[in-house]
Amino acid sequence: MATPMRRTLVALHRATCSSLKNADASLDLRHPLPLYLPVRTKKRYFIPPAVGTKGMKDINMEDKARKAGVAPRQQYFERPINIASTSGIFDPYIPPEGDARLSSLSKEGLKQRTEQIKQSASSQLAIRKIKEHDPQFSTKSFAQQAQEIFVEAHTALTQFNKEKLHSLLTERCYPEMTRGNRYKTIRWSFIESLEPPKVVHARCPDMISKGNLYGQVTVRMHSKQTLAIYDRFGRLMLGSEEQPKDVLEYLVIERHLMNPYGQWRLHGKIVPSWAPAKDPIHKTVMIPGPDLKPGEEFDPLTYEVPKPKAVQWSK
Protein backbone atom coordinates (compact mmCIF):
# COMPACT_ATOMS: atom_id res chain seq x y z
CA MET A 1 0.00 0.00 0.00
CA ALA A 2 2.82 2.37 0.88
CA THR A 3 4.66 1.79 -2.38
CA PRO A 4 1.81 2.78 -4.73
CA MET A 5 1.09 5.86 -2.58
CA ARG A 6 4.70 6.95 -2.83
CA ARG A 7 4.73 6.52 -6.59
CA THR A 8 1.57 8.57 -6.88
CA LEU A 9 3.06 11.47 -4.84
CA VAL A 10 6.32 11.47 -6.84
CA ALA A 11 4.42 11.59 -10.14
CA LEU A 12 2.22 14.41 -8.85
CA HIS A 13 5.31 16.39 -7.70
CA ARG A 14 6.97 16.01 -11.11
CA ALA A 15 3.86 17.15 -12.91
CA THR A 16 3.50 20.20 -10.68
CA CYS A 17 7.18 21.24 -11.18
CA SER A 18 6.95 20.87 -14.95
CA SER A 19 3.76 22.93 -15.07
CA LEU A 20 5.35 25.72 -13.03
CA LYS A 21 8.43 25.78 -15.27
CA ASN A 22 6.23 26.05 -18.37
CA ALA A 23 4.22 28.89 -16.79
CA ASP A 24 7.43 30.82 -15.89
CA ALA A 25 8.79 30.39 -19.38
CA SER A 26 5.54 31.62 -20.92
CA LEU A 27 5.19 34.64 -18.61
CA ASP A 28 8.97 35.32 -18.36
CA LEU A 29 8.76 35.84 -14.61
CA ARG A 30 11.77 36.20 -12.31
CA HIS A 31 11.49 35.26 -8.68
CA PRO A 32 13.12 37.74 -6.24
CA LEU A 33 16.16 36.70 -4.25
CA PRO A 34 15.65 35.78 -0.62
CA LEU A 35 15.98 38.75 1.83
CA TYR A 36 17.93 38.27 5.04
CA LEU A 37 17.12 40.63 7.94
CA PRO A 38 19.36 40.76 11.02
CA VAL A 39 17.38 40.10 14.17
CA ARG A 40 18.80 41.11 17.54
CA THR A 41 18.64 38.35 20.05
CA LYS A 42 18.61 38.64 23.79
CA LYS A 43 21.46 40.70 25.24
CA ARG A 44 24.06 38.61 26.93
CA TYR A 45 25.61 40.01 30.08
CA PHE A 46 28.22 37.28 30.18
CA ILE A 47 30.17 35.99 27.20
CA PRO A 48 32.08 32.82 27.97
CA PRO A 49 35.78 32.92 27.11
CA ALA A 50 37.11 31.16 24.07
CA VAL A 51 38.66 27.74 24.40
CA GLY A 52 42.33 27.85 25.40
CA THR A 53 42.45 31.56 26.39
CA LYS A 54 42.12 31.06 30.12
CA GLY A 55 44.93 32.93 31.93
CA MET A 56 46.26 34.66 28.78
CA LYS A 57 45.59 38.15 30.16
CA ASP A 58 48.13 37.73 32.92
CA ILE A 59 50.95 37.01 30.46
CA ASN A 60 53.11 39.94 29.39
CA MET A 61 53.16 40.05 25.60
CA GLU A 62 56.60 41.70 25.49
CA ASP A 63 58.16 38.91 27.52
CA LYS A 64 56.44 36.33 25.35
CA ALA A 65 57.78 38.03 22.18
CA ARG A 66 61.33 38.11 23.59
CA LYS A 67 61.16 34.40 24.43
CA ALA A 68 60.02 33.69 20.88
CA GLY A 69 62.98 35.67 19.52
CA VAL A 70 60.87 38.57 18.16
CA ALA A 71 62.01 42.05 19.15
CA PRO A 72 59.00 44.17 20.27
CA ARG A 73 58.57 47.57 18.68
CA GLN A 74 59.93 50.36 20.82
CA GLN A 75 57.52 53.18 21.65
CA TYR A 76 58.85 56.72 21.26
CA PHE A 77 57.30 59.60 23.14
CA GLU A 78 58.46 62.52 21.02
CA ARG A 79 57.36 66.10 20.61
CA PRO A 80 58.38 68.47 17.81
CA ILE A 81 60.97 71.17 18.57
CA ASN A 82 62.02 74.25 16.68
CA ILE A 83 65.71 75.11 16.49
CA ALA A 84 65.12 78.55 14.96
CA SER A 85 64.70 79.95 18.49
CA THR A 86 65.08 78.85 22.09
CA SER A 87 62.24 77.98 24.43
CA GLY A 88 63.10 80.52 27.12
CA ILE A 89 65.43 83.23 28.39
CA PHE A 90 68.83 81.98 29.56
CA ASP A 91 70.22 83.67 32.66
CA PRO A 92 67.66 86.51 32.61
CA TYR A 93 68.66 90.01 33.57
CA ILE A 94 67.58 91.09 37.06
CA PRO A 95 66.64 94.79 36.95
CA PRO A 96 67.77 96.77 40.00
CA GLU A 97 64.98 97.92 42.27
CA GLY A 98 64.08 101.57 41.76
CA ASP A 99 65.41 101.74 38.20
CA ALA A 100 64.54 105.04 36.47
CA ARG A 101 63.79 106.52 39.90
CA LEU A 102 67.10 106.53 41.76
CA SER A 103 69.78 109.01 40.80
CA SER A 104 73.27 107.69 40.03
CA LEU A 105 74.64 110.32 42.43
CA SER A 106 72.76 108.93 45.44
CA LYS A 107 74.22 106.25 47.72
CA GLU A 108 71.90 103.42 46.56
CA GLY A 109 72.35 104.45 42.93
CA LEU A 110 76.15 104.16 43.24
CA LYS A 111 75.81 100.67 44.77
CA GLN A 112 73.66 99.48 41.89
CA ARG A 113 76.09 100.97 39.40
CA THR A 114 79.06 99.12 40.91
CA GLU A 115 77.12 95.80 40.88
CA GLN A 116 76.29 96.26 37.21
CA ILE A 117 79.96 96.80 36.38
CA LYS A 118 80.92 93.58 38.21
CA GLN A 119 78.27 91.53 36.38
CA SER A 120 79.13 92.94 32.97
CA ALA A 121 82.14 90.60 32.52
CA SER A 122 80.02 87.69 31.26
CA SER A 123 78.08 90.08 29.03
CA GLN A 124 81.31 91.24 27.39
CA LEU A 125 82.29 87.64 26.63
CA ALA A 126 78.88 87.01 25.08
CA ILE A 127 79.18 90.17 22.96
CA ARG A 128 82.54 88.94 21.63
CA LYS A 129 80.95 85.64 20.55
CA ILE A 130 78.09 87.51 18.88
CA LYS A 131 80.54 89.72 16.96
CA GLU A 132 82.35 86.64 15.67
CA HIS A 133 79.18 85.55 13.83
CA ASP A 134 77.74 89.05 13.24
CA PRO A 135 80.58 91.49 12.53
CA GLN A 136 78.17 94.43 12.16
CA PHE A 137 76.87 94.06 15.72
CA SER A 138 77.41 97.11 17.94
CA THR A 139 75.85 97.84 21.32
CA LYS A 140 75.25 101.50 20.44
CA SER A 141 73.43 100.91 17.16
CA PHE A 142 71.73 97.69 18.29
CA ALA A 143 69.73 99.46 21.02
CA GLN A 144 68.10 101.70 18.42
CA GLN A 145 67.52 98.70 16.14
CA ALA A 146 65.80 96.84 18.99
CA GLN A 147 63.49 99.80 19.59
CA GLU A 148 62.53 99.81 15.89
CA ILE A 149 61.76 96.07 16.05
CA PHE A 150 59.59 96.68 19.12
CA VAL A 151 57.61 99.48 17.43
CA GLU A 152 57.12 97.54 14.18
CA ALA A 153 55.99 94.40 16.05
CA HIS A 154 53.35 96.25 18.07
CA THR A 155 52.15 98.14 15.01
CA ALA A 156 51.72 94.83 13.18
CA LEU A 157 49.89 93.46 16.23
CA THR A 158 47.26 96.20 16.01
CA GLN A 159 46.70 95.26 12.35
CA PHE A 160 47.20 91.52 13.09
CA ASN A 161 49.54 91.09 10.15
CA LYS A 162 50.61 87.45 10.64
CA GLU A 163 53.39 87.42 8.05
CA LYS A 164 55.07 90.50 9.50
CA LEU A 165 54.63 89.26 13.06
CA HIS A 166 56.40 85.99 12.26
CA SER A 167 59.33 87.93 10.81
CA LEU A 168 59.59 90.16 13.91
CA LEU A 169 58.73 87.68 16.71
CA THR A 170 60.23 84.35 17.65
CA GLU A 171 58.18 81.17 17.90
CA ARG A 172 58.09 81.60 21.68
CA CYS A 173 56.96 85.24 21.66
CA TYR A 174 54.31 84.95 18.93
CA PRO A 175 51.67 82.98 20.92
CA GLU A 176 52.27 85.13 24.01
CA MET A 177 51.47 88.34 22.12
CA THR A 178 48.55 87.08 20.01
CA ARG A 179 46.76 84.81 22.49
CA GLY A 180 43.28 86.09 23.31
CA ASN A 181 43.26 88.99 20.82
CA ARG A 182 41.08 87.46 18.14
CA TYR A 183 37.87 89.34 18.95
CA LYS A 184 39.51 92.46 20.39
CA THR A 185 40.53 95.80 18.92
CA ILE A 186 43.94 97.17 19.96
CA ARG A 187 44.95 100.81 19.62
CA TRP A 188 48.63 101.35 20.41
CA SER A 189 50.99 104.20 19.60
CA PHE A 190 54.59 105.05 20.42
CA ILE A 191 54.94 108.74 21.32
CA GLU A 192 58.55 109.38 22.33
CA SER A 193 61.58 108.02 24.16
CA LEU A 194 62.17 109.47 27.59
CA GLU A 195 65.68 107.98 27.71
CA PRO A 196 67.80 106.57 24.88
CA PRO A 197 67.63 102.75 24.78
CA LYS A 198 70.73 100.88 25.86
CA VAL A 199 72.03 97.31 26.03
CA VAL A 200 72.21 96.13 29.64
CA HIS A 201 72.69 92.38 29.31
CA ALA A 202 73.91 89.82 26.77
CA ARG A 203 74.15 86.05 26.76
CA CYS A 204 75.23 83.53 24.13
CA PRO A 205 73.79 80.11 25.07
CA ASP A 206 73.92 76.91 23.03
CA MET A 207 71.21 74.28 22.50
CA ILE A 208 71.25 70.61 21.39
CA SER A 209 74.96 70.73 20.48
CA LYS A 210 77.91 72.74 21.71
CA GLY A 211 78.39 74.83 18.57
CA ASN A 212 74.70 75.67 18.02
CA LEU A 213 74.79 79.21 19.44
CA TYR A 214 72.03 81.72 20.04
CA GLY A 215 72.45 85.38 20.89
CA GLN A 216 70.16 86.96 23.49
CA VAL A 217 70.53 90.68 24.16
CA THR A 218 68.49 92.55 26.77
CA VAL A 219 67.70 96.19 25.96
CA ARG A 220 66.39 98.71 28.48
CA MET A 221 63.77 101.02 26.97
CA HIS A 222 62.05 103.91 28.77
CA SER A 223 59.36 105.51 26.62
CA LYS A 224 55.92 107.09 26.55
CA GLN A 225 53.11 105.06 24.99
CA THR A 226 49.34 104.89 24.71
CA LEU A 227 47.33 101.68 24.77
CA ALA A 228 43.59 101.04 24.51
CA ILE A 229 41.92 97.64 24.18
CA TYR A 230 38.28 97.28 23.15
CA ASP A 231 36.19 94.13 23.30
CA ARG A 232 34.20 92.71 20.38
CA PHE A 233 31.27 95.03 21.18
CA GLY A 234 33.46 98.15 21.00
CA ARG A 235 33.55 98.78 24.76
CA LEU A 236 36.76 99.96 26.40
CA MET A 237 38.42 97.22 28.44
CA LEU A 238 41.83 98.64 29.30
CA GLY A 239 43.82 101.86 28.92
CA SER A 240 43.04 105.06 27.06
CA GLU A 241 43.92 106.46 23.64
CA GLU A 242 44.29 110.00 24.97
CA GLN A 243 46.22 109.48 28.21
CA PRO A 244 49.88 108.48 27.59
CA LYS A 245 51.87 106.60 30.19
CA ASP A 246 55.55 106.23 30.99
CA VAL A 247 56.63 102.65 30.39
CA LEU A 248 59.92 101.05 31.46
CA GLU A 249 60.56 97.78 29.65
CA TYR A 250 63.37 95.25 29.34
CA LEU A 251 63.23 93.64 25.91
CA VAL A 252 65.00 90.39 25.02
CA ILE A 253 66.06 90.21 21.36
CA GLU A 254 67.29 86.86 20.02
CA ARG A 255 68.98 85.52 16.91
CA HIS A 256 70.19 82.10 15.77
CA LEU A 257 73.84 82.89 15.19
CA MET A 258 74.65 79.71 13.25
CA ASN A 259 72.02 80.55 10.63
CA PRO A 260 73.54 82.95 8.05
CA TYR A 261 70.04 84.17 7.15
CA GLY A 262 68.93 84.63 10.75
CA GLN A 263 67.45 87.91 11.95
CA TRP A 264 67.17 89.64 15.29
CA ARG A 265 63.63 89.12 16.58
CA LEU A 266 61.71 89.99 19.73
CA HIS A 267 61.90 87.01 22.10
CA GLY A 268 60.21 88.27 25.27
CA LYS A 269 60.13 90.80 28.09
CA ILE A 270 61.52 90.73 31.59
CA VAL A 271 59.06 91.92 34.22
CA PRO A 272 60.81 92.72 37.52
CA SER A 273 59.30 91.56 40.80
CA TRP A 274 59.06 95.12 42.11
CA ALA A 275 57.01 96.32 39.12
CA PRO A 276 53.60 97.82 39.99
CA ALA A 277 50.47 95.78 39.35
CA LYS A 278 48.61 96.17 36.06
CA ASP A 279 45.41 98.17 35.81
CA PRO A 280 42.23 96.10 36.22
CA ILE A 281 40.06 95.35 33.20
CA HIS A 282 36.77 97.23 32.95
CA LYS A 283 34.11 94.55 32.72
CA THR A 284 30.76 95.40 31.14
CA VAL A 285 27.63 94.23 32.95
CA MET A 286 24.15 94.09 31.43
CA ILE A 287 21.55 96.09 33.37
CA PRO A 288 18.08 94.52 33.13
CA GLY A 289 15.56 96.79 31.42
CA PRO A 290 11.76 96.96 31.63
CA ASP A 291 9.46 94.49 29.93
CA LEU A 292 8.25 96.34 26.84
CA LYS A 293 5.05 95.53 25.02
CA PRO A 294 4.86 95.36 21.22
CA GLY A 295 4.94 98.89 19.82
CA GLU A 296 6.56 100.52 22.88
CA GLU A 297 9.97 102.21 22.79
CA PHE A 298 12.56 102.36 25.53
CA ASP A 299 13.28 105.82 26.95
CA PRO A 300 16.63 105.81 28.82
CA LEU A 301 16.08 109.31 30.27
CA THR A 302 12.97 108.46 32.26
CA TYR A 303 13.95 104.92 33.21
CA GLU A 304 15.25 104.36 36.72
CA VAL A 305 17.54 101.46 37.46
CA PRO A 306 15.86 99.22 40.06
CA LYS A 307 17.77 98.94 43.32
CA PRO A 308 18.35 95.53 44.89
CA LYS A 309 16.02 94.58 47.66
CA ALA A 310 17.33 94.57 51.21
CA VAL A 311 17.89 91.07 52.51
CA GLN A 312 17.71 90.31 56.23
CA TRP A 313 20.24 87.65 57.04
CA SER A 314 19.35 85.39 59.93
CA LYS A 315 21.74 85.38 62.86
Automatic annotation (TrEMBL):
Span of domain Tim44-like: 123-271
Pfam families to which the protein is assigned, alphabetical: Tim44
Superkingdom in the source lineage: Eukaryota
Keyword Ribonucleoprotein: yes
InterPro entries: mtLSU_mL45, NTF2-like_dom_sf, Tim44-like_dom
Main location per the UniProt record: mitochondrion
Gene Ontology, cellular component aspect: mitochondrion; ribonucleoprotein complex; ribosome
Localization terms from the record: Mitochondrion
Keywords: Mitochondrion, Ribonucleoprotein, Ribosomal protein, Transit peptide
PANTHER family in the cross-refs: 39S RIBOSOMAL PROTEIN L45, MITOCHONDRIAL, LARGE RIBOSOMAL SUBUNIT PROTEIN ML45
Function: Component of the mitochondrial large ribosomal subunit (mt-LSU). Within the mitochondrial ribosomes, required to direct the nascent polypeptide toward the tunnel exit and position the exit at a distance from the membrane surface.
Family the entry assigns: Belongs to the mitochondrion-specific ribosomal protein mL45 family.
Protein name: Large ribosomal subunit protein mL45
